[in-house]
Amino acid sequence: MSKEVLLPSEIPDVTNPSSESDFKESDKSSDKKQAKEAKEDGTSERRLNRSKLEDSINLSHLEKLKQKFKEHDQDDSNGLDIDEFEQAFRAILTRNDGLSKEEMKVMFMKIDTNCDGTVDWDEFCTYMLLEYKERQDMNYVNETPFPNPFRFVSNPHRDTIIGVGFMKALNRQRADEDGPVTYSNTNGRFVTVDICGTMGLWNTDMQLQKSVVLDEVKSGRGKKGKWILAMECMSNTSKIVVSTSNRELCFYDLSAGNYDLCFVVPCFDNAITTLHYWFNPINHNEAVLVFGDSHGQIGRLIFSSVQQGLFGADSIKKSNATRRILMHDIYMGRIDGVKLNLQSIHKDWAKKVMFVPNYDAFISCSMDQETSLYFGNINHVGEKKAGSIFSVYKGVNAFDYSKDYIVSGGLDTVIRVWHYSMINKPTAMMKGHSTAVEHVIVSEHTNSIISVSKDTVIKVWDLKDHVCLQTLI
């Protein structure tokens, strides 16, 4: 059997005084290290207990503490002094054993904001509210808006996707339920269209249900070079509208599953580059289709009887023939239930336009530096610009809005937050992108902004504190 043997050089010389002193010094340093670690463990444990002190206070504790404060108010004292404060807490709470007298004194001094040596009920409640608010804000900042990684899905498109929309589904009602029919914001299907006219239909889990090539584009693509420039979903009519390079609007019916072309509005002055559709959630007959063209002109198709027919009552036909609606007839008021307003706003082509129902107005943007962003009334007629004009260096590429603010992004890579009534200067500017901002989305539910730049970097911003919460690459 082999044994481990120490070589002579490895055996410590215990007879050597220097060696003995080395052993003593090492023992002392080891003892100091252990004492330091124990002290740190005790401190961390007390910190843990202190951090959980607010969590241990429930409604019953608050009622008992309030009674303690009332008792001292009755004896003409201003509140609890440090000794009474400590006694009250130790009598009511059972989870503060880890708090030393010194730490209790520090907490007392934090609550005693007027520095009079006593803590009253108002000071205590203010401290608790601030503690909970700070903790809530920290939890909000620490939360990751998009914790899951990207999921790439295969798609039928082989060309640039120019539009992604959501076709809302009807909310099912029981026979005994009264009230207007409503549309769901979560149930429905996504619609994607590329520049060559290929349309994809997706469920809410982004699983492809069907892909088709729009007939009018397919028949004219090779002969006339027709391309799709913009697309918008019209949920209350089960249709989509697309603009083409032939300066026309095409309306496709998705209700029957045939995806037939039902209306064509030709002969616009310029090619329409952006679309936005809105319908009244209470009265589905009321709807607005706003559009912008390649010369900076903004148009509004205002519908008043959608359920009776998109372009008048006689537009509902049993035949599948496509009906051509002349823009001149709409402009002159010859088509029932729809009117057209046109207005020259920008000196460059319109990049985006949106209808704002709360103000009965619209917002449009362009790369023109003088009229980068425009906010005006939907019913205004005439060439005079009666709305608010926001000027931005290098123009505005994209925007979105909330009930209080407009958020924009452009070539200068800066995200700007504007108030509707303050057009001279943005209320906030957020920097972080390295290339031009292509898309901006405002989420009022989470009080955040999502921006996408040209290099496919996605950033999530806090709308309140104007800081970046997450960057997705």
Low-confidence stretches: 1-24, 38-52
How many helices does DSSP assign?
8
DSSP strand tally:
25
Q: What's the N-to-C terminus distance?
A: 63 Å
Using only C-alpha atoms, the radius of gyration works out to 34 Å
* Strand order, sheet with most strands: 5-6-7-8-12
Largest sheet: 5 strands, mixed
Percentage of β-strand residues: 25-35%
In quaternary terms, these chains amount to: single chain
Helix percent band: 10-25%
Write down the overall geometry.
elongated
Averaged pLDDT, please? 78
Which class of secondary structure composition applies to the elements?
alpha+beta
SSE blueprint:
Blueprint: H1 17-51, H2 53-56, H3 59-74, H4 82-92, H5 101-111, H6 121-142, E1 161-170, E2 183-194, E3 198-202, E4 208-213, H7 215-224, E5 228-234, E6 239-244, E7 248-253, E8 260-265, E9 272-279, E10 287-293, E11 297-303, E12 323-324, H8 327-331, E13 338-344, E14 350-356, E15 361-366, E16 373-377, E17 388-390, E18 398-401, E19 405-409, E20 414-419, E21 428-431, E22 437-443, E23 448-453, E24 458-462, E25 468-472
Parallel strand pairs: 8-12
Antiparallel strand pairs: 1-2, 2-3, 3-4, 5-6, 6-7, 7-8, 9-10, 10-11, 11-13, 14-15, 15-16, 16-17, 18-19, 19-20, 20-21, 22-23, 23-24, 24-25
